[in-house]
């Protein structure tokens, strides 16, 4: 167990107070000395000067759950909402995928947006990859962006991809520092390579902070069954099972199913970690906000806003190839003040990742 760590704090990735002290007292689970924090990373957003996007007609194709999922889709929506405010975007059409819909439905959704003159069209989620590839070839004059997929090489398609494993590493560190049992959990929505990145980073971060931590990990549905992102009841049951085994901090990467994970944590009197958006401030989960100690921020809002800004200014080549910790593409939330005492610890690990001293794996160890 390490003692009191005197570390210099640096700028955080979200709003909220960083606390008045730079000392973070480690719990009995912690076995590693945290690295010291260095200089803060520069943000990728906030283009200088006024940008006029009033002539853009933006099409937004949501993944299942749509606006109001308190997670992935809401983050994309926030980026578009910011573009309305800052860039003057007036015309936005939204459409939402259904659970386990076929490729024809996805292609039809994108085709309808492009045919109606919406340009650019933003597809929210890797499930749109085949549809974007097919539809973008038919509408060469329409710009498309796709979140979480970089397999399409068409000149009118921009991938918006993230280093989810890096942000999840910090979530794992936070879990260890806040765990009383030295036993934490992970609940993934669908067992895909993308969600495995969240698991991989979380496990690596937890193990970096503690050599004795026990980690539960479960998925709600196998690959191909996307209902795992929209089943709060199942999220509740799976999280409750992990808690019954001793997990007292549970990290969820399960879309709208995360609501059930938070409910299970509240019922059992344990803690939870949100994902994608700052879920402490999300209206749809506000009844359980008291158990949310932090959220792994996947800045889909930043990526979407930056993309729309780049379209308006014809500077798409300036976008980062991957939204990672270095450009604030991922991070952690401090809303609620529940991790203020360990912000210097998290920032120390953050700088180790940015500098390359720590390389975070994208695949789970087992």
From TrEMBL:
Annotated Gene3D superfamilies: 3.40.50.2300
Residue span, ABC transporter substrate-binding protein PnrA-like domain: 62-360
Family affiliation: Belongs to the BMP lipoprotein family.
UniProt subcellular location: Cell membrane
Predominant localisation class: membrane
Entry protein name: BMP family ABC transporter substrate-binding protein
Source organism, top-level taxon: Bacteria
Annotated keywords: Cell membrane, Lipoprotein, Membrane, Signal
Topology in membrane: Lipid-anchor
Source organism of the structure: Amycolatopsis rhizosphaerae
InterPro entries from the UniProt entry: BMP_lipoprotein, Peripla_BP_I, PnrA-like
GO CC, any one term: plasma membrane
Signal peptide (UniProt feature, chain positions): none
Presence of keyword Zinc-finger: no
Coiled coil: none
């Amino acid at each position: 167990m390490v003692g009191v760590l005197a570390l210099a704090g640096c700028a955080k990735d979200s709003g909220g107070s960083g606390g008045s002290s730079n000392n973070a007292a480690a719990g009995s689970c912690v076995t590693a000395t945290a690295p010291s924090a260095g200089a803060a990373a520069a943000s990728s957003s906030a283009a200088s000067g006024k940008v006029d996007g009033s002539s853009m007609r933006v099409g937004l194709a949501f993944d299942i759950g749509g606006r109001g999922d308190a997670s992935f889709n809401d983050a994309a929506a926030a980026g578009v909402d910011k573009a309305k405010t800052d860039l003057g975007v007036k015309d936005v059409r939204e459409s939402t995928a259904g659970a386990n819909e076929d490729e024809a439905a996805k292609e039809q959704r994108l085709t309808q947006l492009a045919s109606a003159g919406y340009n650019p069209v933003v597809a929210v989620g890797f499930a749109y990859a085949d549809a974007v590839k097919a539809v973008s070839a038919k509408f060469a004059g329409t710009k498309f962006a796709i979140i979480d997929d970089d397999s399409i090489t068409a000149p009118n398609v921009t991938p918006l991809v993230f280093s989810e494993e890096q942000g999840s590493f910090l979530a794992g560190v936070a879990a260890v520092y806040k765990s009383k049992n030295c036993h934490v959990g992970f609940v993934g929505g669908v067992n895909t390579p993308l969600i495995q990145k969240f698991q991989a980073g979380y496990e690596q971060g937890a193990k970096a902070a503690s050599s004795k931590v026990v980690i539960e990990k479960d998925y709600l549905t196998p690959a191909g069954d996307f209902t795992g992102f929209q089943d709060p009841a199942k999220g509740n049951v799976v999280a409750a099972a992990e808690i019954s085994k001793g997990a007292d901090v549970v990290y969820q990467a399960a879309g709208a199913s995360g609501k059930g994970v938070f409910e299970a944590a509240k019922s059992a009197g344990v803690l939870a970690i949100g994902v994608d958006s700052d879920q402490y401030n999300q209206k749809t989960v506000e009844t359980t906000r008291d158990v949310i100690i932090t959220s792994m921020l996947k800045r889909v809002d930043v990526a979407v806003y930056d993309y729309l800004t780049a379209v308006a200014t014809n500077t798409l080549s300036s976008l980062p190839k991957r939204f990672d910790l270095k450009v604030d593409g991922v991070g952690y939330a401090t809303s609620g003040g529940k991790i203020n005492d360990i912000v210097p610890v998290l920032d120390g690990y953050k700088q180790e990742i940015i500098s390359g001293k720590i390389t975070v794996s994208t695949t789970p160890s087992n």
